[in-house]
Amino acid sequence: MPKSLLEQLPEIVARGRQTAEKILESLEGRHRVGLQTREWVLPAKDSAAADWIVANTRQDALASVQAEPGDTERPWRNRLVYGDNLLAMAALLAGDPETGLASLRGKIDLIYIDPPFDSKADYRTRVVLPDVELEQKPTVIEQFAYSDTWSDGTASYLEMITPRLILMRELLSDTGSIYVHLDWHVGHYVKLVLDEVFGKRSFRNEIIYCYSGGGIPDREMPRKHDVIFWYSKGESWVFNTQYRPYSEGTLQRGRTAVKGENAVLREEGTPINDWWPDVKKITSPTDPEKLYYDTQKSEELLARIIKMGSKEEALVADFFGGSGTTAAVAEKLGRRWITSDLGKPACMIMRKRLIDNNARPFFYQAIGDYQVEAAKNTLGRSFRIGDLSQIVLSLFGALPLSSDDNPTRNLGHIIGGGVRTLIYVDSPNKLTGAATLKKALAQRDNLLGGWDKVVVLGWNFEPSIGESITALNDAGLEVLVIPPDLLDRLKKKGSLEKLRGSVRFASLQYLKVKPVSRIRHTDGRQETLAVTLDNYVLLSPEAINLDEANRGKLQAVMNAEPLALIEYWAVDPDYDGRVFRSVWQDYRGNVDNDGDPLRVVTSATLTLPAKTGPRRVCVRAVDVFGFEAEVALNVGVEVAA
To answer: What is the superkingdom listed in this entry's lineage (predicted)?
Structure first.
């Protein structure tokens, strides 16, 4: 007879502790998890109406951005992190030397999480393009995360949440609190895990978040509330009493209880209790807050929690970021924040929302060396890069070269149709760029008497990879993308043989811009930069999780209006080759510029402080599926007549 969940719970918690302890131990090693800064966002969305106040503020912020690399003590920067929150928390515990971030162990003041708690939830994404609506299934990485979470029902869910709660406790400050938002599906089981992780003495309250509307009584009562479990880390905690307005009946009783005196009623209202029937829930499609994200919570709810549980300038975190309500409200309330999510659609929604709210500059980051971490989980902590390269070569259909000619075990070959092709697998812990391509070409020409062609398979790419390929102009060079979910799929299938034949190595997407105009003003103090998009070529549609009907619709848009696929684009007028610093953005849904919610504007005009010599201008675009492409170029200056 299978064990009940209560019988399994001690084992689940023990395994969760082991997972968390391994992560904490790894923080002391050389190969600890890090964060890659994909973008430093200086919110400055394109707008048709010029606002000189905003423009001046932007210039001040731009000056601080330009001064940043030389700083010895860097200011705090809020963070939006894409990737598995277990790895994100490990990176935050380890610290981030690249951006001057010390370890956040014991530094976060408030954590709110709203983890998925319905095993039958629909995680598909609706993508609306001009005259076309697509339905995209989650990326395979997301699918595996969701399916692993629910593979054995509630037990799997508890396996997922336990080590994460342990790391959250490590991140909390001594006076910090965590608020865990759940419903009837798993709430009572997670409460037991919370008791184990934080201790029963740290349980502060169970908040009932009520809502109305919908639900037809049939054989049972409609469910009309969620629960929010509040735990503190220590024996003291931050609590700021919140109030709600008095009801009319209470006001009337107060007026009559003591005639002529108002002392019986507080000016601010009545203190709230743990029953919250008065907090807004987003239900109406016309609600101005609605972002069409299934699990979106109202700003009113998060405002109450953040005000209640933290002080101004406190650090607030949400590791299941979703639509970004926690970060957006923390920003408005003068708190610092960190948020993360595994889903690319969620991260795109959050980035646009924060820009729309004119947030302070923030980092958009990703988990560094994700594939290395995935390989460790799949192949064991002692795996070597060569082992991974051998797997990739096998799935590509190549035979490995002998160890004498291939000491790093990353080279293979395919011979067929009279063509001898060398296969070069790049390392997952580096960016494939111009140097790698030149090395591969040299091996093609010289190794074992030379080859007709070389195919470079890469995991991660330098932003300028498209330019590098174009500049080499070599018909005997092909560059393909190793599927980022390959190891997750291998783990799921259980063997190479079961996966063989089903892995597609896709071509790169790339962005083209028209010649950039740079005009120096006659006063010599400012100059104008004009950037116009020219074309966008999407990563092979076969790599996107669409059915055939939706893929056909996508192909039609690609043929007719490729720039309509761009969800977001930004400009860095002084790219340093390391961190993209977004000082101008536009995105679908920004109707302040052209009134068109389904298209970005295709031209950007920036007025900047004058600079001597060429500018290194970088343009980044993110398409509706979350794929990124960049183009960087040196631009000389012309003097206005």
So the answer is: Bacteria
